[in-house]
């Protein structure tokens, strides 16, 4: 991660399988799935509004999606109970060109 990007924890509750799959595929290009409906993503700061709009367009009434920024200090304090998260240090995320 560089100074021009930020980490986001994205959590969602979407009832429709098709919409949920589209959201998961979009998020998978930017980070790691931590749980079924939770991703840790890294976005270029200039694209946050664009990506938020893409996610908003996939939602319908009754759906919920939360975007939580995670600073480096807070990310280092994350506590995981139960099954450990395996991080892939060499993972390359795709870049979204607008």
Note down, in words, how this protein is organized.
This protein is an alpha+beta fold and 98 residues long. The chain has one domain (5-75): Alpha-Beta Plaits (2-Layer Sandwich). The chain has three helices and four strands. Strands 2-3-1-4 form a four-stranded antiparallel β-sheet. The two termini are 20 Å apart.
Q: What is the compact description of this entry?
A:
By secondary structure, this protein is an alpha+beta fold.
Order of helices and strands: EHEEHEH
Query: How many strands in all?
Result: 4
- Cα(first) to Cα(last) distance is 20 Å
β-strand percent reads: 25-35%
Rounded radius of gyration (Å): 14 Å
Architecture in CATH? Answer: 2-Layer Sandwich
Low-confidence stretches: 89-98
- The class by helix and strand makeup works out as alpha+beta
For the sheet with most strands, the description reads:
4 strands, antiparallel
CATH topology: Alpha-Beta Plaits
- Chain-averaged pLDDT: 84
How many structurally independent domains? Answer: 1
- Name the overall outline: globular
The helix content is 25-40%
Text of the CATH class: Alpha Beta
């Amino acid at each position: 991660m560089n100074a021009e990007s930020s980490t986001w924890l994205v959590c969602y509750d979407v009832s429709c399988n098709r919409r949920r799959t589209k959201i998961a595929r979009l998020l998978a290009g930017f980070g790691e799935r931590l749980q079924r409906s939770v991703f840790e993503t890294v976005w270029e700061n200039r694209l946050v509004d664009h990506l938020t709009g893409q996610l908003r367009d996939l939602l319908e009434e009754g759906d919920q999606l939360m975007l939580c920024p995670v600073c480096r200090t807070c990310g280092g304090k994350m506590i995981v109970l139960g099954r450990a998260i395996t991080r892939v240090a060499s993972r390359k995320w795709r870049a979204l060109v607008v």
